[in-house]
Amino acid sequence: MAAHHAQWKGHLKIGELSCAVGLYTAASTSERISFHMINGTTGNRLKREFVDSETEEPVEREQQVKGFETGNGDYIMIDPEEVAGVIPDSDKMLEAEAFIPCGKIDDVYFDKPYYLVPVDDADHDAFTSIRDALSRTSATAIARTVLFRRMRAVVIRAHGKGIIATTLNFDYEVRSSKEAFEDVAKIKVEAEMLDLAKHIINTKKGEFDPAKFDDRYEDALAALVKAKAEGKTLPKPKPIKVSKPNDLLKALRESAGLDKASAEKPKAANANPGKKATAAKASRTRAKPAVRKAS
User: What's the maximum distance between 2 C-alpha atoms anywhere in the chain?
Assistant: First the structure.
């Protein structure tokens, strides 16, 4: 990670064992295709400008401050230095407060993943001890620290040769699942539909391989940009077939390969009826016992 800049540096501590670590972004959007706002007439790039809502005059960057609305258009102005002043800068310690089994955290609380890496060679022994202890006990550590000027809860777990720290959403930030699903209708699923769905799931079980999942949106954008740059016809997306409610059972049967199999059986049975009749007649002839005449 030496080629990358650590977004945060502090200490990871479990009990009396601690080491200096750097926090690096595990997921980045820098490779995505991005667009700029352009003046459609001149072709020049646009620049963003903040304007006073009352005077309609541009406001320079040094005059821009954050404010909290108290109501009726009144604001308490907060300077960034004031925000930094109330957050303890010395609080750069990821100290484990509790340990829970891996997989026991509802992933709806997961925010962003980061890599934790030892800062100096002297920190490798302590770092490895913490990593191996987490791995062998299948435990996840919960810690809190100040990240990016905010107090954040972080879940820490072993991952290969290193450690992953994932920031967590606070409880007030996560919508209630009960509220989100309250309009979902209660429907009793037919036994055949459920059995077919379970059959499809069982036959398609596999391992998660992120390399197999392509970003079709990015691929479509890349094809669009390439086509326009070369003056070619714009690519047309293939229509997606959506099952209708009254076709769900049929769709499940087709997914399980049952409709195809049942359609092929009659076809095979009816093929060459003349040949089939001849074969049947020959079979009856062979099966017919010989009759002796009485002497």
Answer: 131
How many CB atoms lie under 10 A from the CB of residue 21? 27
Residue 276, amino acid: K
Q: What is the 3-state secondary structure (H, E, C) of the chain?
A: CCCCCCCEEEEEEECCEEEEEEEEECCCCCCCCCCCCECCCCCCECCCCCECCCCCCECCHHHCCEEEEEECCEEEEECHHHHHHHCCCCCCEEEEEEEEECCCCCHHHEEEEEEEEECCHHHHHHHHHHHHHHHHCCEEEEEEEEECCEEEEEEEEEECCEEEEEEECCHHHCCCHHHHCCCCCCCCCCHHHHHHHHHHHHHCCCCCCHHHCCCHHHHHHHHHHHHHHHCCCCCCCCCCCCCCHHHHHHHHHHHCCHHHHHHHHHHHHHCCHHHHHHHHHHHHHHHCCCCCCCC
pLDDT in tens, 113-172: 999 999 999 999 999 999 999 999 999 999 998 888 788 899 999 999 999 999 999 999
Whole-model pTM over 0.70: no
Terminal-to-terminal C-alpha distance of the chain: 105
CB-based contact 146:160 (threshold 8 Å): no
For the chain, residues classed under CATH 2.40.290.10 are 8-27+87-173
Query: What does CATH list as the number for 8-27+87-173?
Result: 2.40.290.10
